[in-house]
Amino acid sequence: MTNTKTPTRIVYFGVGGSTGKTSQAVNQACEWARRGLRVRYWDGDNQGDGSTYFHYMEPPTPIGEVLAGVETIEDPNSRTGRRVATMREIELPVFRPTAEAAEELGGLAPEEPGQEDWLRRLTIVPSGIGISGTTLNDAMTAMTRDDLGPEKVLATIESIDEGRDEADLPDIEIFDLPGMVGSLHYLALKWAARGGTRGGRSGVVLVVTPDDKAMGKHFWDALAKIDSVSKHYPIAPVAIMPTRVTTNRGRFYVEMYETFKGNPKLENLVAPPVRETVHVPESFGARQPLLLWVPDERVTEDQTAVADWLKEHGVIAA
Question: Which InterPro entries does this chain map to (predicted)?
């Protein structure tokens, strides 16, 4: 039975290396927020690039410390004087009222009128290295030593909305995964399978680039992994996003793209392409998503086209 109260959960799965997965996840999160959806971004990458994009280079408590059970919160009632933070406590706002506040606390300040509303609809569960030095990879390693480790980690992740009124839930949650497939990928797929329909349709977004590494063997391996999980949990791809597409596309890309579009199992999953442009690495360096950095550029319009496609296909509701 579909859960209508739980937020829609979308996993961003990079196929191959340097596909632009995090850039796509961050910028789509911003575009969906601009359309009126409340979006929670989970940075599931040990490097914390998504957190960096939202100007949280050194978050107070990253997700790895919570999942590893590291005591980071001062608590005079605890035997040690500290306790493990809750997921809800480490969730951070993206909106900051001024550039000075963003510089001091992290997050983003609006650049132009009208941006405050959608920035307020974004939150982030950050990754990176915390004060203890514990990373998300450390937490995943610890998880494998416990027979019930995956269930405990999943329960901790899902505890973020315990006690929260339904009206205060996000519409959509994005889980941005690292490029190297590991235990976290299977966990995130199971998490997404438990998602709801508040803001669309839960599932997996496969981000690919026009090369043999991403659109060849790695792509079919990724589909096989999703298919293996789907035999036990209701999870499936909802989109294939071609990214870093150059204006002068080569013969190989054209043939591969046509293969995707001509495959009856894939043709309805291929979203519009996102072009290769210097604005994307620039925006990351500036800690500014495209809607803030270059709101009127064609690559930002690509994000709108992808979101329109996702709406047409029932993946997002706005």
Answer: P-loop_NTPase
